[in-house]
Design a protein that fits this description.
Distance between the termini: 50 Å
Strand content: 25-35%
CATH superfamily: Vaccinia Virus protein VP39
Shape: globular
Radius of gyration: 17 Å
CATH topology: Rossmann fold
Number of domains: 1
Largest sheet: 7 strands, mixed
Number of strands: 11
Number of helices: 6
CATH architecture: 3-Layer(aba) Sandwich
């Protein structure tokens, strides 16, 4: 019997900002459910790893200097794990608003993501990603050398499928400008999504120099997708 044939067992349930978060196990895999709706799972990691990998290939090949990465959303730690696997990466700053997600990554999920939160290069912020972006943008304006070469936005299933209504900001003109401010020239922003989103794609093309859409087949047979947007 494979993991997909097994009944989900709820391991933990926690109050979230706008409802309830559940961690459940299905065979050897784990799922996170938000207010009864699927949010993320350990069997859906191929696309988010590919997003970070492709962004780092672009950013790292343009310079020999150390690479700093900023992430919005921790998930099950796959993106963080992938970034830390690159020797050029000097620091990964992760903003995660939900304490339950952080707690699960520190215990149950640490065996899944290779203890990513315990890597000395990881800087974890238990704040809204917008707050993190605003702080980093202020720093970037004062100290341009402290900008990021890669920024990953993985807070939602895309601009049309938000986990929190306030996250619409990240896909807006103002949000994209804030992300761009935090990036070095030649830096890359990557946005995870569950499907192609043409309206958002047009927004990206107005703000960034080069935009590309990618899809990867997951264990489920469905596709996970992401956009890469390079700053000029």
């Amino acid at each position: 019997m494979t993991w997909s044939d097994q009944t989900a067992i709820v391991i933990d349930s926690r109050r979230a900002l706008e409802g309830e978060l559940q961690l459940q196990r299905r065979g050897e895999e784990y799922e996170i459910i938000y207010n009864g709706l699927f949010l993320m799972a350990t069997y859906n990691g191929a696309s988010e790893k590919a997003a970070i990998r492709d962004a780092l290939k672009i950013a790292a090949c343009r310079s020999d200097s150390p690479v700093n990465v900023l992430m919005g959303g921790l998930g099950v730690g796959y993106s963080l794990q992938e970034a830390l696997a690159w020797k050029q990466v000097a620091r990964v700053t992760v903003a995660e608003i939900e304490p339950a997600i952080i707690r699960w990554n520190r215990d149950v999920l640490r065996k899944i993501n290779n203890n990513a939160l315990y890597d000395p290069r990881t800087k974890l912020l238990n704040i809204d990603f917008r707050e993190a972006l605003e702080e980093e943008a202020e720093t970037a304006l004062r100290h341009p050398s402290r900008r990021y070469k890669v920024i990953m936005i993985d807070t939602d299933n895309g601009s049309s499928w938000l986990s929190l209504p306030s996250n619409a900001f990240f896909y807006s003109t103002d949000g994209l400008q804030l992300i761009s401010t935090c990036l070095y020239p030649g830096g890359v922003a990557c946005f995870w999504c569950s499907r192609r989103e043409e309206a958002f794609e047009k927004q990206l093309e107005k703000k960034f120099h080069q935009v590309s859409f990618h899809s990867v087949e997951e264990k489920t047979g469905y596709e996970g997708c992401y956009y890469l947007a390079r700053k000029e």
